[in-house]
Amino acid sequence: MIGLLTGQVVETSEAGCILDVQGVGYLLSCSRKTLDRLTAGDGVQRVLVETHLRQDAITLYGFADAAEREAFRALIEVKTVGPQKALLVLSGLAPTALARAIAGKERKRLAEVKGLGAATANRIIDEPAMQKWAVGRATPEADGAGTEASPATPPGDEGDAVSALINLGWKRPEAAAAVARVRTRLGAEAPLGTLIRDSLKELAPR
């Protein structure tokens, strides 16, 4: 079973990417948020992997961090929510935002995830195991903020951008400050990928 791959992203699509690991290309299915993180960084990327075996196929699902992989594992345990729908959910909501939506029974918010629908959203929220999963994960600290004093993790895409920069090796305070500057400059409509790329430019040595 494959649990971790380290290599370079050589190709992406709406469904995932190909990661070149020492000359072998692994096809990974990923959420949009993971793809944005992987393509925002240059060079070697570290990807957590969930391996699913079936009689007719071996499918690899890639995740930029452990929180997203845990959310994926919880989601696929819900009846009628398979891996592809789980990735749809995680493309629309980061794990902490998903936990908040479930804990707060925000049915409309979850139903608005592209491709999900109200029936599946209700099933996720009403699933006791998902409610249990959400406990303790519905706060910004659940993203792994650590104990050092730092600005609060911003909501939505800003929080995802900060997490991406931390995964690339930056400290939370400087990552949060860079993302805040970029958001102020570009405005509320700037997509996650642009936030990450411009924040990296902000952090680059001058």
Automatic annotation (TrEMBL):
Region (Domain I), start-end ranges: 1-64
Record has Signal as a keyword: no
Keyword check for DNA damage: yes
InterPro entries: DNA_helicase_Holl-junc_RuvA_I, Hlx-hairpin-Hlx_DNA-bd_motif, NA-bd_OB-fold, RuvA, RuvA_2-like, RuvA_C, RuvA_C_sf
SMART domains: HhH1
Domain Helix-hairpin-helix DNA-binding motif class: 73-92, 108-127
Any Pfam family: RuvA_N
Region (Domain III): 158-206
Chief subcellular location: cytoplasm
Subcellular location: Cytoplasm
UniProtKB keywords: Cytoplasm, DNA damage, DNA recombination, DNA repair, DNA-binding
HAMAP family per the UniProt record, alphabetical: DNA_HJ_migration_RuvA
Free-text function comment from the UniProt entry: The RuvA-RuvB-RuvC complex processes Holliday junction (HJ) DNA during genetic recombination and DNA repair, while the RuvA-RuvB complex plays an important role in the rescue of blocked DNA replication forks via replication fork reversal (RFR). RuvA specifically binds to HJ cruciform DNA, conferring on it an open structure. The RuvB hexamer acts as an ATP-dependent pump, pulling dsDNA into and through the RuvAB complex. HJ branch migration allows RuvC to scan DNA until it finds its consensus sequence, where it cleaves and resolves the cruciform DNA.
Domain notes: Has three domains with a flexible linker between the domains II and III and assumes an 'L' shape. Domain III is highly mobile and contacts RuvB.
Assembly and oligomerization: Homotetramer. Forms an RuvA(8)-RuvB(12)-Holliday junction (HJ) complex. HJ DNA is sandwiched between 2 RuvA tetramers; dsDNA enters through RuvA and exits via RuvB. An RuvB hexamer assembles on each DNA strand where it exits the tetramer. Each RuvB hexamer is contacted by two RuvA subunits (via domain III) on 2 adjacent RuvB subunits; this complex drives branch migration. In the full resolvosome a probable DNA-RuvA(4)-RuvB(12)-RuvC(2) complex forms which resolves the HJ.
Sequence similarity: Belongs to the RuvA family.
Name of the protein described by the UniProt record: Holliday junction branch migration complex subunit RuvA
Species name: Plastoroseomonas hellenica
Lineage of the organism: Bacteria, Pseudomonadati, Pseudomonadota, Alphaproteobacteria, Acetobacterales
Gene: ruvA
